[in-house]
Design a protein that fits this description.
This protein has 448 residues and is mainly alpha-helical. It folds into two domains: 182 residues, Growth Hormone, Chain: A; 204 residues, MFS general substrate transporter like domains (Growth Hormone, Chain: A, Up-down Bundle), CATH 1.20.1250.20. Helix content is 77%, strand content 0%. The relative contact order is 0.14.
């Protein structure tokens, strides 16, 4: 009952955050949903707008897809100790169950976006979620550790499609004034999915073991895949484009050579390394004395609620002081949160974890917008900038998620803390580098 209550709280707060985030950007068009397209510029006619049934279906479909994506990706995090017991691997070995998925996503992101420019948007999103759900079902009964890693890696590749394609689909099919609101629907779905996957996995494992927990989350993914198939309107404005690998490589190298893009990618690598590393290792620490939380460890992930208001709070700071300084402040709060998790009392551990979550989710929302905005202002490849950031982001998750659990295994929580603080220093240095090359008004969010 307590768990169900917390999940309902997450859903309520996420819905409230989505409404607050989108109110200003949608006000100009939401007040007149019944108007025809004739008053719009020719390029915007036929695009989905708030108040239309197709727009509501699109929003719900994106939210369902985002939910499934992150629930299936992250539900293994609180189950890492269970994987140690089931497959006889070390804690750092168990962390590979998440790392192979995130590295699969990172590699696939490089090719999925450009490939979708040639083959379409909606079809790949539908197929990828279905494939990921089926791979999840298979992983529930994986007979060996190696088989599980292969299945989780393939699931990561499949899960890369939705985040790589969804925002391009929104840009093509949704009226520009409603882009942020539609993007927020997808991001809200990912946040709720990531929280729900972590919260539900522990109790499901305690009741039915790894197979039952995995089948439940995979079944939920397949239900969301059905929702995506039924709800997402087909593309009407997609125009296939030829994929030229040589031009793609040239544009990617030009984009990542920009000092600001490179700095923001450095933040993504190190920041995500801190976040996933601490969350991976905390699952083991809370099973040891003096805590011994057992299945109740899932309730530690309720602190994910602290991240609900983070994007809007960090955005307000950035609007006043610039993106660079706001991101530096968020990195400082990440360091403070990592230090708080190192304390012994459980309330202090959870408070530190909450502060780390708040700071990272706010910083990530700011950095992901900054890298795209910088690319657009400099005439660089926007898609390449976004892909480069996500590649760094998921590489940080894959590498440092394993390193952190290794640190826990060899050096205890002091080793995890040392790694987290070193990575926050790297994130701060990368952010300062980006701020140095994009200072003042240019480092502020574009007006909405």
């Amino acid at each position: 009952m307590l768990l169900a209550h917390q999940v309902r709280r997450i859903l309520h707060f996420e819905h409230h955050q989505q409404r607050a985030h989108s109110r200003l950007v949608s006000a100009a068009i939401a007040s007149a949903p019944a108007r025809s397209d004739h008053h719009l510029p020719t390029a915007d006619r036929g695009r989905h707008r708030p108040g239309q049934a197709a727009y509501r279906r699109l929003m719900l479909g994106l939210a369902a897809g985002g939910f499934a994506n992150f629930a299936l990706l992250y539900y293994v995090q609180p189950l890492l100790p269970a994987l140690v017991a089931r497959y006889g691997v070390t804690p750092s070995g168990a962390a590979a169950a998440l790392s192979v998925s995130t590295i699969g996503m990172a590699i696939a992101l490089v090719v999925v976006g450009p490939a979708s420019d040639a083959i379409g948007r909606v079809g790949p999103m539908r197929a990828s979620l279905t494939a990921a759900g089926l791979l999840g079902v298979a992983s529930a009964v994986a007979p060996t550790w190696q088989a599980l890693l292969v299945l989780r890696g393939l699931a990561g590749v499949a899960l890369a499609v939705l985040p790589a394609v969804a925002l391009a689909y929104v840009r093509e099919e949704v009226h520009p004034a409603a882009h942020l609101r539609a993007n927020a629907s997808f991001i809200t779905g990912t946040a709720v999915g990531g929280a729900a996957g972590r919260l539900l996995a522990g109790p499901l494992d305690a009741r039915w073991g790894w197979p039952g927990a995995t089948l439940a989350v995979s079944g939920l993914t397949l239900l969301c895949a059905v929702a995506v198939c039924l709800l997402l309107p087909p593309s009407t404005r997609f125009t296939p484009a030829a994929v030229r690998p040589d031009a793609l490589l040239r544009d990617s190298l030009r984009t990542i050579s920009d000092p600001v893009v490179a700095g923001i990618c450095g933040f993504g690598l190190a920041g995500m390394g801190v976040f996933v590393g601490v969350y991976n290792a905390i699952a083991f620490r809370l099973q040891e004395p003096p805590y011994r939380l057992g299945g109740a460890v899932a309730l530690a992930y309720v602190v994910y609620l602290s991240g609900v208001a983070a994007p809007s709070a960090v955005r307000r700071v950035a609007a006043a002081w610039g993106r660079g300084l706001a991101l530096l402040l968020a990195v400082g709060l990440m360091a403070a949160g990592a230090a708080g998790v190192a304390l012994r009392p459980l309330p202090a551990v959870l408070a530190g974890l909450g502060l780390l979550t708040f700071a990272f989710l706010g910083a990530h929302s700011l950095a992901s917008g900054w890298v795209v905005d910088r690319a657009g202002r400099q005439g660089l490849g926007v898609a390449q900038a976004a892909s480069s950031y996500l590649l760094a982001y998921y590489t940080g998750s894959a590498v440092f998620g394993v390193v952190a659990t290794r640190q826990w295994q060899v050096h205890g929580w002091a080793g995890v803390t040392a790694l987290a603080l070193a990575l926050t220093a790297l994130a701060a240095a990368a952010t300062a580098w980006a701020r140095r090359h994009d200072p003042g008004p240019a480092g502020r969010p574009a007006p909405r």
